[in-house]
Design goal:
The complex is a heterodimer of chains A (about 110) and B (about 110). Helices cover about 0% and strands about 60% of the residues of chain A. By secondary structure, chain A is mainly beta. In chain A, strand 6 and strand 7 form a beta hairpin. With about 110 residues, chain B is mainly β. Classes of the chains: A mainly beta (about 110), B mainly beta (about 110). Chains A and B meet through strand 4, strand 5, strand 9 and strand 10 of A and strand 5, strand 9 and strand 10 of B.
Chain lengths: ~110, ~110
């Protein structure tokens, strides 16, 4: 079992709709969770961090964490074409960051 | 506020050669981590430096080594290059103190081994 798993996609969402990205992790000792956005040919950009169970909102982005189910998700409301990118889920265990393979998201105008 | 910087941007090397990549952390950050990202994959953790010492290491061979300088900048060295070392090499910085474990990436160095 991979340490961090994501659906590789591609995930296509109409402009203005909600995009939902999911991630599961294997290590119950994980304490910190992050979502990065990576445009093609660029480096990852941190968009959300979450440390406690529940929801965390920042603008159009909402991160959700359920430690009992070992599940973290990212919702993007009112999706824009500029949101088209690969979204990487990252989990920190003992101060070491482990990434999933990423989900490619395409917003259809 | 300067972000994380890396040099060079691109590099082409031949099998068996050695390469050095450089990174300057974001202002106020003292911890530097290095990652390798192959095409279509997520970044893989190589190692992390704090106070000029290697704190943690991922599953990479000893051909991969690093250094951190007193000004917190860092170098990644790779010896005896293999074709499989071709990848995007990313440096990320973070503040070790405080409760933030957020890591911020530089633009990366694209290494091609021929």
């Amino acid at each position: 079992q991979k340490e961090v798993e994501q659906n590789s996609g591609p995930l296509s969402v109409p402009e203005g709709a909600i995009a939902s990205l999911n991630c599961t992790y294997s290590d119950r000792g994980s304490q910190s969770f992050f979502w990065y956005r990576q445009y093609s040919g660029k480096s990852p950009e941190l968009i959300m961090s979450i440390y406690s169970n529940g929801d965390k909102e920042d603008g159009r982005f909402t991160a959700q964490l359920n430690k009992a189910s070992q599940y973290v998700s990212l919702l993007i409301r009112d999706s824009q074409p500029s949101d088209s990118a690969t979204y990487l889920c990252a989990v920190m265990v003992y101060e070491k960051l482990t990434f999933g393979t990423g989900t490619r998201l395409t917003i259809i105008p | 506020d300067a972000g994380v910087t890396q040099s060079p941007t691109h590099l082409i090397k031949t099998r068996g050669q050695q390469v050095t990549l450089r990174c300057s952390p974001k202002s106020g950050h003292d911890t530097v981590s290095w990652y390798q990202q192959a095409l279509g994959q997520g970044p893989q953790f190589i190692f992390q430096y704090y106070e000029e010492e290697e704190r943690q290491r991922g599953n990479f061979p000893d051909r991969f080594s690093g250094h951190q300088f007193p000004n917190y900048s860092s170098e990644l060295n790779v010896n005896a290059l293999l074709l499989g070392d071709s990848a995007l090499y990313l440096c990320a910085s973070s503040p070790l103190t405080g409760n933030s474990y957020e890591q911020y990436f530089g633009p990366g160095t694209r290494l091609t081994v021929t």
